[in-house]
Amino acid sequence: MTETQTLHALAALAQSIRLRVFRALVVAGPAGLTPGALAAALGVAPSALSFHLKELLHAGLVTQQRHGRNLIYRAAFDTMNALLAYLTENCCQGNACAATQAEAVACGC
Question: Which CATH number applies to 3-107?
């Protein structure tokens, strides 16, 4: 993931509704959710949700697939993992991250 892609993804997540939408899609897993289900679950107006989904889609954080008359949105786990890898690339002074919480605290992760 490039620095520009990272900035675009972080900018997309730096808004409360988009962050809530992304987290809901992560919880939903590979099954994903329809915009209607997301709007109902998060208490967001459908028109506002559409705008936020478009921003997440352009940042590469979600995917969209047509299923009959419905659109299904899913978290783009590959992009999420690439973002996390980019952010933690030099964690623990370039060494592999600690496996336990105690080790993570010791190295400052």
Answer: 1.10.10.10
